Amino acid sequence: MKIFLFSALCIAMAVAMPYDVVEYEDGQQYYAVPVSREKRQTQWGLNQGGAGISHTGNIFDNSNHRLDGTASAAKNWGSHGIRPDQFGGRLDYSHKPSGSSAFIGADRTRGYGTDLNVGGKYNIHQSKNFGVDLTGQYGRHFGGPGGTGRPNYGVFLNANGRF
């Protein structure tokens, strides 16, 4: 059932894409598919404890807004099965004109629960030699052997200057 729904979603997305038809002099027709190249980065690593992979890429970018996403997974050598032991994701948003930003991320470890983190930065003042911003962050652990933990949060006023 899941493969059917996934296939139907892929077909619907392909049909909804705007294609231009190009016809050559000999009568052959071709679909011109728009291509957009974005910087994407895949990292992987192996060590004595296991293997991990993460992929980061830009989801949306224009003159005012930028949205980036990251997905990651890791597998410990000593665990059973082929499912990943840890997996997670993160979204990062930036408002370019103001320099403000926000993020949300979650990491799930099988048998130990989920960590959720949310944060943001508001740029109060920025000049060539001086900047002030307000940042806030919230994190909490859910589930696992220790149960749901207490929230961890904070709000900070940051200033920096170049002399």
Automatic annotation (TrEMBL):
The keyword Signal applies. GO terms for biological process: defense response to bacterium; innate immune response. Residues 53-163 form the Attacin C-terminal domain. One of its GO terms (cellular component) is extracellular region. Keywords: Antibiotic, Antimicrobial, Immunity, Innate immunity, Secreted, Signal. Residues 1-16 form the signal peptide. It is found in: Secreted. Belongs to the attacin/sarcotoxin-2 family. This is Attacin C2. It comes from Octodonta nipae.
